[in-house]
Design a protein that fits this description.
By secondary structure, the chain is of the alpha+beta class. The chain is built from eleven helices and 13 strands. A five-stranded antiparallel beta sheet has the order 11-10-9-12-13, sandwiched between helices. Strands 2-1-3-4 form a four-stranded parallel beta sheet, with helices on both faces. α1 links the parallel β1 and β2.
């Protein structure tokens, strides 16, 4: 009997297109294996009715960003008592909230850049805000939404343009203003309780932004194995596993780091990394002799409820 796998894709976040690409990659791999019956469903309309009609054994959650990666969909799937992939309700909601997750990292002695949270009011004094950022964070500084992924609306700013950039993020009620850490961009993947591996990125753009992640024309250089000492390699993998565990994550996660002056700064942890042709977790897995279908099957076999 072929196993029925329902793939959730698309959704309502700004990462919709990436989610659709991920879902097609996953579906093709499963279909090519000949062992599965698959269907892709966009969680629009009556999602529960669609799920009950298909009657899947496992739901592969290929959604990214808000409503798919923040505990919302997970709570629906838990209520339906259907096995699903990746992290559960609480871990998903903690990880996507950059403020809460950073507080947890700090409490557990994981180094992360200094930051302040800024809440939009009808009017704010630009000079007071500028001086406050200068005093607390310094420049350059990074501004970002509290709960978006894929570097959506992330900007590296200096004193002359930060207020203008902040005003462009008024679509969000709150944003994060974070100290910019220069240095090397290294990402580490965890698979269950296994330290899968790390990869270094050298973007041609200013930083590893949305274009650098998903547009082949951006020509971001992927370096694997990463040129780190054994001690530092073990250190970054241990931090990634610790962050995965303290947030209560399941399945696969990818942690984003900056390596500067022999220190690793954890920027954030992603509970549903992409599975596109340019995605990092499949590339790390391949280097570790775990091909794409093996990776996808591991994620499916790890699926459960009560996550």
């Amino acid at each position: 009997m072929k196993k029925k796998i329902l793939i959730l894709a698309g959704g309502f976040s700004k990462e919709r297109e990436i989610s659709l690409i991920t879902s097609k990659s996953v579906q093709k791999a499963l279909n090519d294996s000949g062992k599965y019956i698959t269907k892709i469903i966009d969680p629009k309309g009556d999602l529960i009715k669609k799920i009950r009609k298909f009657k899947p054994e496992v739901i592969f959650n290929a959604l990214h960003g808000r409503y798919g990666e923040d505990g919302y969909i997970q709570s629906i799937l838990e209520n339906e008592r259907i096995k699903y992939t990746h992290s559960g309700v609480l871990a998903s909601s903690l990880a996507i909230d950059k403020d809460i997750s950073k507080k947890i990292f700090i409490r557990n002695n994981i180094l992360t850049p200094k930051y302040i949270k800024f809440k939009f009011k009808k009017k704010f004094n630009k000079n007071i805000l500028l001086n406050y950022i200068k005093k607390k964070i310094g420049f350059p500084a990074v501004i970002k939404p509290l709960n978006e992924g894929s570097s959506v609306n992330v900007h590296i700013c200096n004193a002359s343009n930060i207020i203008n950039k902040i005003e462009k993020l008024k679509i969000y009620k709150e944003i994060m203003i974070e100290k910019y850490i220069p240095g090397r961009e290294i990402q580490a993947a965890i698979l269950g309780k296994v330290k899968l591996g790390a990869i270094e990125l050298k973007p041609k753009r200013k930083f590893y932004d949305y274009e650098a992640k998903y547009n082949p024309k951006a020509k971001t250089e992927h370096i694997i194995p990463v040129a780190l000492s054994i001690e530092n390699y073990n250190k970054i993998m241990n931090i990634a596993l610790k962050a995965h565990n303290i947030l209560g994550c399941k399945g696969v996660t990818r942690s984003d780091f900056r390596f500067y002056k022999n220190k690793f700064y954890l920027l954030e942890l992603n509970t549903q990394p992409g599975m596109t042709s340019l995605s990092l977790v499949p590339e790390i897995a391949k280097y570790k002799n775990l091909n794409f279908i093996e990776l996808i099957e591991w994620i499916i076999n790890d699926a459960s409820i009560n996550r």
